[in-house]
């Protein structure tokens, strides 16, 4: 049977019909008929922020979690809009990974084990996917699930710094060979408490946490007294 040829006008009509049935809009600004417009995509160009957690671990974030970048991260995490947006966020994470490796005596990402902060069971049930692992794979990384949660924690969005530290204290364990050099990754850093807990678990298992990389850093992280700007 010969293939059916579809004219350009028919394709456009079909696309228009789909748009009517399933309207899309830019996750960054609401512009119609596009998942991510060019102006909002430009807002995702990496502008690395390098700081330290309360324990002194270096963390590099590709973006500030504000405005367009915050809306896009939320669209991925809370609305499941992954097809276009995950790819758009990947360069920010990759840039952060490359920068933190360069700060660690010129280490290459190929010379370390990339370890994501684990997704809670509740978040996995709600979303159906692991956000930072998906972004990491789009960034050309090979995340390994070395960290596991040992107990449930509460949602940290409304918690202060000290409350966050208590909330995640001793909540993770790691399965890694002694001497393994590890780089932690996560989507957003707010206080650094979760990353510090991941690093503690890595050290307890004999691993060596070199630092952490995240897609974005919140204003709480950028302005907090516990975080320090680090010269590059």
UniProtKB/TrEMBL annotation:
Q: Which Pfam families match?
A: Pribosyltran
Molecular function GO labels? glycosyltransferase activity
> Which keywords label this protein?
Glycosyltransferase, Transferase
List each copy of the Phosphoribosyltransferase domain by range: 166-219
Transmembrane regions listed in the UniProt entry: none
The entry assigns this protein to a family as follows: Belongs to the ComF/GntX family.
Entry protein name: Putative amidophosphoribosyltransferase
Task: Provide the species name.
Answer: Microbacterium endophyticum
């Amino acid at each position: 049977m010969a293939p059916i040829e579809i004219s350009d006008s028919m394709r456009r009509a079909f696309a228009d019909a789909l748009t009517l049935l399933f309207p899309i809009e830019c996750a960054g600004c609401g512009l119609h008929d596009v998942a991510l417009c060019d102006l909002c995509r430009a807002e995702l160009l990496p502008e690395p922020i390098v700081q330290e957690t309360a324990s002194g671990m270096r963390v590099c974030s590709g973006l500030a979690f504000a405005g367009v970048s915050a809306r896009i991260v939320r669209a991925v995490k809370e609305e499941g809009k992954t097809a276009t947006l995950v790819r758009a966020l990947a360069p920010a994470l990759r840039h952060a990974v490359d920068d933190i490796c360069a700060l660690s005596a010129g280490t290459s990402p190929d010379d370390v084990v990339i370890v994501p902060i684990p997704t809670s069971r509740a978040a996995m049930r709600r979303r159906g996917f692991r956000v930072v692992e998906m972004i990491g794979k789009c960034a050309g990384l090979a995340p390994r699930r070395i960290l596991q949660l040992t107990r449930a924690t509460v949602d940290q969005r409304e918690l202060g710094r000290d409350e966050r530290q208590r909330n995640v204290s001793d909540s993770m364990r790691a399965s890694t060979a002694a001497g393994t050099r590890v780089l932690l990754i996560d989507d957003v850093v707010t206080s650094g408490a979760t990353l510090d807990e991941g690093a503690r678990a890595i050290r307890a298992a004999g691993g060596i946490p070199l630092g952490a990389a995240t897609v974005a850093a919140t204003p709480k992280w950028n302005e907090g007294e516990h975080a320090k700007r680090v010269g590059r």
